[in-house]
Amino acid sequence: MGFHFSNLILYEHALKSKSARGRDSLVSEMIRHSTAILHLPMDTVDQHTRHLSDHIYHMITFAAIVICRLLSSYETQLAATYNIAELDTLICNLVQWLHGIGLPCHAAYTLANIIAKELFDRVALIMPPFSSEILFSKENTLKEALDQVTDMHQLVSAVNC
């Protein structure tokens, strides 16, 4: 995870200063490293997961937020290479996984809320106003809202085909 995180940090800094010519490969590499960071802990769950250091949770959170922000800025470019709905589903699954680790006072739970907010901000930009009002109503639980985000991506994908 440290290898992917260090590369992700390097690419993050390079993306801010790189010309448009090299941007495509940087964005693609950032998605690759971010997804690797997210898959690693979710695919290797054991009894020690609850006791990971906050540093690990911070790396996971950073990778998730990078994906959300890259999707917001480069969605059309990334759609040619990546399945956007799968990336959003990965983020939704991560939020649910982090919520399942511990009580609401656990760092993972708090960081999951931050990731969910970033995802919702991104999704709210591409949804019609009426659907975002339904999605973010107070009656919805986080899980219901995440399920609706996935359903909306499936609907948008079907309409765009």
Protein architecture, described:
- The protein has 161 residues and is mainly α.
- It has one domain (2-125).
- It has seven helices and no strands.
- Helix 1 (2-17) packs antiparallel against helix 2 (20-43) and helix 2 (20-43) crosses helix 4 (84-101).
- The N and C termini lie far apart (36 Å).
Write the layout of secondary structure elements.
Elements: H1 2-17, H2 20-43, H3 54-79, H4 84-101, H5 107-126, H6 129-135, H7 142-160
Helix pairs in contact: 1-2, 2-3, 2-4, 3-4, 3-5, 4-5, 4-7
Please supply descriptive tags for the structure shown above.
mainly alpha, 7 helices, 161 residues, single chain
**Number of helical segments?**
7
Strand content: under 5%
Tally of extended strands? 0
Shape: globular
End-to-end CA span: 36 Å
The overall pLDDT average reads 79
**Helix-strand pattern, N to C?**
HHHHHHH
Outline of the structure:
This protein is mainly α and 161 residues long.
